[in-house]
Amino acid sequence: MRTSLNEIKQVEKYLFNQLTTEESLLFEARMLTNPMLRLNVRVQEKIYSVLRFYHRKKLKEEFEHIHENLFKDPMKKDFQKSIYQLFKS
Amino acid sequence: MLPTQTPEVHKKSFEQLYESGFPRVAKFISKMNGSFQDAKDLFHDALVIYYEKTLDEKFTITTTEEAYILGIVKHLWLRKFKHDYNFVSLEDSEKEIVLPDTIDENPDENKLLQWLEISGKKCLDLLRHFYFENKTLREITTAFGYRNEHTASVQKFKCLEKIRDTIKEKAISYEDFLK
Questions:
Q1: Which domain holds residue A74?
Q2: Which of B31, B91, B116, B155 is the most exposed place for a label (fewest CB within 10 A)?
Q3: Å between B102 CA and nearest CA of chain A
Q4: A76: pLDDT confidence band, cut at 50, 70 and 90?
């Protein structure tokens, strides 16, 4: 694997707490002297949180779909009625 | 690297969980004078939180999946409407539930995602499967049509690099991406 990809792998291990204490300290020392590495770590951290956000969005689309199907399925009339009844005021 | 699935949790499909779990949640929300829409929204949020918890191989539950999800909903309700914790009675097993600190939508992330969805959808999807789906490397390799598992895992890091570099480039004009 290319050096740049190995660095990304290393950053991932650092962010996921998969480095040994020694490796982690060494990595932090490198960050102190290397502003580009610091920026890369920050951006990579951001990517993981965007990915989580993206995955949540996809999951919710799936739930929306399940909800729609469940509430329009003629076979599930009793189910629908029992829920709607709860919200009659 | 990939989280493995524990046998006790997340056995049911989302369809099954929806049908078995939603009625209790709806009942609770209606008791709290919430709306049908509140019930639906909080149930969806709770399913997401529950799903993410199941990605952790150390995660176990002592109740049923449905009861656990109702517990999450109670916490969400209390949090959302700033209700008094004495007002809603929580079972002992529910008191142990901890909500993730990342559940609020972040406008920056939303903006960044919208932009990445245009410029790098394929990488986003690949990475999402790597980190957030209960899939093995082999399954991902097949699903995305890579030659072998090595190629797939190299591609993962290539995608991270690609997205990283586009964000860095973009950050020059939109500094708030990196807040």
A1: 5-86
A2: B31
A3: 9
A4: very high
